[in-house]
Amino acid sequence: MTTQILALEKDLFFSVKMRDTLRHHEMEVMVVRTLAAFEQRLRLTGDEKPVLAIVNTATSGVDWEGAIRQAREHGLPVLAFGSHMDLEARQKALQAGAQRVVANSKFTSDMPGLVKRMLSELVITSDDEEE
C-alpha cells in the first residue's frame, strides 16, 4: 500500500522533484498550490487520505500557516521546510502546529528519511496511546 502525503508547494519543478523522490519510497505526494485545494485534499478518505502534510514556508501568496493549522485540525502531522535564514517563518510554523521545521537544504538532501522518521514517530505515538 502506498503512503499518501499532502504537500503545499507552488514551485512546479520542486513539486516534481518531491513526487519523484518520494515515489521511489512507496509514497505518493499530492501537491497542491492553493489553500482551498489543500483543504479539499484534507477531506479525502480511504486509501486517498493523507497521513502527513508537507508545507513550504516560503510559499508566497498562500496562507501556509492556515494550511498547517488545518492539517493539525485533521490530525495530520506537519513537516515544514523553508529558508534557514527566515527564523520568523520557522517560529510561525511551529506556533501554527508543525512538528518539525527544517531548512530547504536538509529537506532536499534527506527528504525520504525525514518523512519516514515522522511517519515512524506517528506509529509509535499511536501505539502508545492505545495502551
How much helical structure, as a percent, in the residues? 40-55%
The helix-strand sequence is EHEHEHEHEHH
Query: Do you know the CATH topology?
Result: Rossmann fold
- Return the CATH class: Alpha Beta
Short overview:
With 131 residues, the protein is α/β, with parallel strands linked by helices. It has helices at 12-23, 35-42, 64-73, 87-96, 104-109, 111-130; strands at 3-8, 27-32, 52-56, 78-82, 100-103. It has one domain (3-130): Response regulator (Rossmann fold, 3-Layer(aba) Sandwich), CATH 3.40.50.2300.
Task: Please characterize this protein's 3D structure.
Helix 2 packs parallel to helix 3 (64-73). This protein has helices at 12-23, 35-42, 64-73, 87-96, 104-109, 111-130, and strands at residues 3-8, 27-32, 52-56, 78-82, 100-103. The chain has 6 helices and 5 strands; from the N terminus they run βαβαβαβαβαα. It has one domain (3-130): Response regulator (Rossmann fold), CATH 3.40.50. Helices cover 50% and strands 20% of the residues. The chain is of the alpha/beta class and 131 residues long. It starts with a strand and ends with a helix. It is globular, with a radius of gyration of 14 Å.
Topology:
Layout: E1 3-8, H1 12-23, E2 27-32, H2 35-42, E3 52-56, H3 64-73, E4 78-82, H4 87-96, E5 100-103, H5 104-109, H6 111-130
Parallel strand pairs: 1-2, 1-3, 3-4, 4-5
Helix pairs in contact: 2-3
